[in-house]
Design goal:
Layout lengths: L10 E5 L3 E7 L2 E9 L3 H14 L5 E8 L5 E5 L9 H11 L4 E8 L6 H17 L4 E5 L1 E8 L4 H11 E8 L3 E8 L3 H11 L6 E3 L2
Antiparallel strand pairs: 1-7, 2-3, 3-6, 4-5, 4-6, 8-10, 8-11, 9-10
Helix pairs in contact: 2-3, 4-5
């Protein structure tokens, strides 16, 4: 499944580490497990782990969302009525503005049917319960830029780096080499600033 949103995003948010929360509704127990998932394989591994842990549960419903644009996602109702579990879990990611995330909500049936509306609320509430205790983590979308300069230009280069670089590595020999991670939407602008403020002596090279 793909999103049609192609806007340029430099920073998005995920969760720092796995968390678990539990709620009970009319005898049914809903256990929500959330984890960081930078790719589909990580999400699927987590889902398999939770399914194995709660192998005797009535349902293990899940959703995951990957990428800055959230353009890779999946959800399942795992035997619950269509649209009553997976989608509500997925929608909570939007509410919390999270991506690179997977949530599995496990249900142990308590003997009372909740109806589709009740299930939607239950799975949403369970997902929100676990996401509300998760610690937010920033993910920076960056492009690597190589910068080579002479010592006489380093002050100018460092000033520009301080404005643009998310992180960098420096190597000092007879000249200075810097590999700077720049927000992707600003990489070309960064290169232009280097060229302009050093009168063309320093050129940034974007590393593909």
């Amino acid at each position: 499944m793909k999103s049609s949103d192609s806007k340029n995003i430099d920073i998005y948010y995920t969760i720092e580490k796995s968390e678990i929360a539990e709620i009970k509704i009319k005898g049914s127990k809903f256990i929500a497990n959330a984890s960081n998932a930078p790719d589909k394989d990580t999400a699927q591994d987590f889902i398999s782990k939770i399914r194995a842990k709660y192998f005797d549960a009535t349902h293990n419903c899940y959703a995951y969302k990957i990428g800055a644009d959230g353009n890779e996602y999946r959800f399942t109702d795992d035997g619950e009525p269509n649209g009553s579990a997976g989608k509500p879990i997925l929608f909570t990611f939007t509410k919390f503005d999270y991506s690179d995330i997977v949530v599995v909500v496990t249900r142990y049936f308590g003997g009372t049917k909740l109806g589709v509306g009740g299930l939607v609320r239950a799975y949403s509430d369970a997902a929100e319960a676990v996401l509300s205790i998760c610690k937010r983590k920033e993910i920076h979308c960056t492009t690597a830029v190589q910068v080579n300069c002479a010592y006489e230009d380093i002050n100018t280069v460092k000033r520009i780096l301080s404005e643009y670089a998310v992180s960098l590595n420096e190597n000092y020999t007879d000249k200075i080499e810097v590999i700077a991670n720049i927000h992707s939407s600003k990489a070309e602008e960064f290169c232009n600033e280097l060229y302009k403020h050093t009168n063309g002596k320093v050129i940034g090279t974007i590393i593909e």
